[in-house]
Amino acid sequence: MYTKDFEPYKYPINRNVRNNFDIKNKSKWFINNNTNTQMKPKSKNKKIGNRWKRMLNDYSQNTTLHGLRYAGNNELSASERCFWIISFGLAVITAIYFIVNLVHKWQDMPVIISLSPKATQLTSIPFPAITICNMNNARKSVARTILETSSKFSSNIDRRLLSDFCDEDPLLMDSAIDNYTGDWDSLKKFMIKVSQPCHDMIVSCQWANNHKVCSELFNPSLTDEGICCSFNKVKADYIFRNPKDLSDLNVTFPNPSANWTPENGYPPNTPAEYIPWRPWGAGNHLGLTLVLDAEIEEYYCSSEVSYGFKVMLHSPVETPKISSFGSLISPGRETSIEINPTVGMATPALADIKKEKRQCVYSAEKQLRFYKTYTQRNCILECEANFTLMFCQCVMYYMPKDSFSRICGKKDEACSDKAKLAIELRYSSPLTNMTQLLNGTYLPNCTCLPGCYWIGYNKVHSSSPLANSYKIKPIYLAGKTSSYFKTQCVAKCTDLSEQSLGKVPDKKTGTLVTAIKNKIQEGSHIQTIERLWGSAKRRNKKHRGTARHYLDSYLTEFDWRQNLFNDPPSIWSYGAQIWGCAKPTQIKKIEAFQSISLRTITSAPWFVSNHTLHKDLKIETVENLVKTHYKKFHSKLLHHPNPLIANQQTATIPGNPHRRLKRRWCRDLLN
Fold first, then answer.
1. pLDDT tens digits, residue range 144-170?
2. Are residue 274 and residue 354 in the same domain, yes or no?
3. 428 and 415 within one domain
4. Which residue in 118, 322, 338, 558 has the fewest CB atoms around it within 10 Å?
């Protein structure tokens, strides 16, 4: 095979030599027709080398790779060809380097986490399960009854359990009571007896802007804080694998539950009334609103150094750990919790990768012993229960267990705390050496990886004190007095939101209030209020808030409400007869500032209208006050001795001149 430029007619061969030449006999000699010199035939290796040389030269001339065609160009100098050869070689080496890095990166992290391009509707995910616990471990009235009861065996057991629950020194009892380990039935009866019932804790409920019976929304649940109240948590049949063999609270659900899982979601055609309920939309009015009663007078011993509630948001198919992850809520305050759900999903191609590399688990890949649905929290809690049973020969009362497992008592507290700490350190600090902590006991690796499908709820909560002067609706009192409500109860709202508002700096808090109080008392008019109002809006513009945040530090000074609004002649109504005829847009600015100030001072909830607020506080609106002042002023003009002033009481100016467009006169306030 010849190359394109090969021309055999330029190199003729002698006919006799060509006829007598034996290609197979390489020892033959042949004679060149031009020079008649004897030549030795080429070796096989040299022929192969020339062939590859011709092929590479032909490839370099016809390739489209940048730079390589210049390396094989015979018309270029040797230095230029060498430059292009070196450049091409460096480019190939660089490409190989980056390819190797990508391969190593894929081997280390084969999963890429990114934001989904598709929007997820709020109605396709469940509203979070909410568990609320009173920090009171035992009610005072029940504790006194237990302590004053005659010394019976059952009463002594309750005394011992009471001292254990409250971390008190054990009372003097006989050896039988001292060595009594107890069983689940006795412990469950005691916890139900001393805990605050859900119908006493939750006074009023509002779900999706509709008032509901709280017993239909909340059910008692067993947690590490004792017996608490849970909302939107599915029944035990969908949480545990064998609920009949599991020692737990016997709870009846008034509403049916659906077999929802983070991976499979809701079954097809699931009705809206099935638990877990789905949110109706974003906003406080479409969320959950509660009124909670702390029963402070019933506090006997608290799980913390304060009184109030612990609240935790979690998945509807998980068992919460309130003591470690719960948020504290104080009584006597209105608390708002903003919920931002986060949903994790995996592509089908991820299932072909080993779980050690993708670092997540599908529900079908790992079966838990007690829990029916795999989540990382369920796996860790079950691992903690199994290790505690192996290390201490008992389990804590809130852990998943069967009816034959022994419940850990006060004597086992040190051992169970070590087991709990070891499991927590295993997942928070895997490199920690726990041989000394566990006295050489082997700590099993439960490999509780996150689920490939999961749902989380991030929360941002804020609170403000309940106002002493605010009138509480009877529907929220539940037969109690208003003063009781303001000291014992919590108004709590939870809602799903699209985004969070930024926090307002605290440096200038209170500056606006002081400026308004001083400026208005000097007899200024609408321009002063407008200037202060605009300044507040400019300060707060980048925080997407309003001037209301700058009034929060003045909430306790209720004398300001009386001085600013209930004593108009001395404060802000100076010259109302004159500036009251300003444009409606200017009057609206003062009305808006007045409404925001009243709402801030009284901490009025969102569902209270401005009209109701003015009516309850007996404060006139700006429009009504201006009309009242001008009518009083106009009545004095009729019989005034000065004729120029007396003419001002007429309906129009003498001569009835034309008004400029959209211009109001003072006498228009008479209508």
1. 888 887 566 566 788 888 888 887 765
2. yes
3. yes
4. 118
